Amino acid sequence: MSDRSAASATTARERDALFLLPHYTNLSKRARTGAEIVTHGDRVYIHTTEGRKLLDASSGMWAASLGFSEPGPAEAAIAQLRKFPYYHYGLDKSHEPIVDLAERLAKMVPIANAKIHFATTGSEANDFLVKFLWYMNDAHGLPGKTKILSHRDAWHGSTIAACSMSGIARCHTGFNLPLPGFIHLTPPNAYRYALEGESIDAFVDRLCDELEQRILAEGADTIAAMIVEPVNGAAGVVVPPQDYYPRIQAILARHNILAIADEIITGFGRTGQMFGSQTVGLRPDAMTFAKGFSAAYVPVSAIAMAPIIHEGLTQGSDKHGFFAHGSTFAGHPVGCAAALKTLEIIEERDLVGHVRRMSPILQSKLERYKDHPLVGQVRGVGLMWALELTANRSTRQPLKQTGATANQIAVECEKRGLIIRNLATGDTIAFAPPLIINEQEIDDAFERFDEAFNEAIKWAKERGFVG
Ligand SMILES: Cc1ncc(COP(=O)(O)O)c(C=O)c1O
To answer: Residue ranges of the domains in the chain?
Structure first.
């Protein structure tokens, strides 16, 4: 493909290879092969120019919560585009969709007297929030209270601060990240990080002790906040032990360190409650939203913040005479209109209840694999589930060529018209289908998955990756 001239590249796949510098892929391979072109969707299915129909059990990037053909957010976006295509919400102007959405969200979040700030992507919301915490602490006379705690393996986004908060080593390597002042702690993933013979209670004790000791070593007056995904997505769908967050929260509060929930995957029903924080018993001082916020129909993201933060920002603005922060497309009226409609649909159709009804069905399909000699753990909540492979169920030893077998499962699934996500941490595959998925579609997914799984394990055995 790379020696083709631009003139002879005609199909979208060929032009993809020639003209795009894509993301999350091997660039040389992509320049040779191009990519499959997705043209349209139909509930939980996507269609490609090659005539393939795939059930996307990963919702794009954990995002398309209403699937790919829900008219509501699309019509709301089109109506807003026709009515008034663009305005910002800075200087002394605002617009109706952003005010309506801010009010609706402020009344939904489990933060009293919250105020809402808007951005465009999840990464940007997390990045902005770091700036806000720094600005707030400066206004409070604590300019050195800047460090951010987060979890190893967590994912908070691709911008410089969001990627620094993230704990996935391969996303730092080569990019000169993380920045100093971003500290990664052991995540509440007992399967991966509990010591041999360690009980869950002892594991949580150890993690709490790690946090406390780290705060003491760094100095609480140097740490602004800890940011967490209530259920870590990219880290392998890590559902924390029940008392982990209440205990972590108590330690943070004692040291005057804020708790931030990155709800970019877990917000708006994914975990079977409206917010992941409610599922795990976390009471955050701020929450960030994107992805399912607008069902991914139009990019829009948000930060909901408690008075300590928004009052701190106001103090800073008074101190400096101006809140010198903003972004042209933040809170775009078309994104706000799509998000507002999405939230209406989620509430009117009781989609959170639907997630709770579908969750045990998806769980039972995965739990058929629980006793497979290569399956270490099946875990999840709501409509986010993972299956982790191991070479040895008692020692939880990873497979040889870690990641290759999970990747092959994803490849075999793709061949059979199913998209699942193989994750960067170990041989783990994740299911996070659109929240609208029904029982028949779950059956369809697993007919494809069962065949793909067996084929991939055969492939791995032939290569000696599994015994
Ligand atoms: C938990 C979490 N936070 C933040 C982000 C970044 O969001 P975006 O890709 O919209 O920048 C992601 C993206 O996958 C995510 O999963």
So the answer is: 36-69+351-462, 72-348
Distance 252 CA to ligand 1 centre (A): 24
Q: Distance from the CA of 123 to the center of ligand 1, in angstroms?
A: 6
Strands (E) located in 202-276: 223-228, 258-262
Q: Which fold has domain 36-69+351-462?
A: Aspartate Aminotransferase, domain 1 (3.90.1150)
**Domain 72-348 annotated CATH 3.30.390.50:** no
Euclidean distance between CA atoms 41 and 56, whole angstroms: 10
Q: Is there a contact between 381 and 239 (Cβ–Cβ < 8 Å)?
A: yes
Ligand 1 centroid to residue 263 C-alpha, Å: 9
**What would the two tokens of residue 343 be?**
């939230």
CB-based contact 351:345 (threshold 8 Å): yes
Answer whether 260's CB lies under 8 Å from 285's CB: yes
Distance, in Å, from the CA atom of 415 to the CA atom of 410, rounded to the nearest integer, reads 9
Mean pLDDT, contiguous 10-residue spans, the chain (467 residues): 66 94 94 96 97 98 98 98 96 96 98 98 98 98 98 97 96 96 98 95 98 98 98 95 98 98 98 98 98 98 98 98 97 98 98 98 97 95 97 91 94 98 88 98 98 96 89
pLDDT tens digits, 316-346 = 999 999 999 999 999 999 999 999 999 999 9
Which residue has the CA at smallest separation from atom 10 of ligand 1?
Answer: 122
> Do the beta carbons of residue 361 and residue 433 sit within 8 Å?
no
* pLDDT for res 5: 61
Q: Rounded CA gap, 134 and 131, in Å?
A: 5
Joined together, the tokens standing for residue 282 give 């976390």
- Mind listing the pLDDT tens digit for each residue in 184-239? 999 999 999 999 999 999 999 999 999 999 999 999 999 999 999 999 999 999 99
Model pTM above 0.90: yes
DSSP collapsed to 3 states, 89-152: CCCCCCCHHHHHHHHHHHHHCCCCCCEEEEECCHHHHHHHHHHHHHHHHHHCCCCCCCEEEEEC
Nearest to 351 by CA among 449, 433, 415: 433
Interval between CA 118 and ligand 1 midpoint (Å)? 15
Q: Any residues with Cβ below 6 Å from ligand 1, and which?
A: 61-62, 121-123, 126, 155-158, 229, 233-234, 262, 264-265, 290
Structure confidence at residue 3 (pLDDT): 55
The Å distance, Cα 81 to ligand 1 centre, comes to: 26
Atom of ligand 1 nearest to the CA of 157: 6
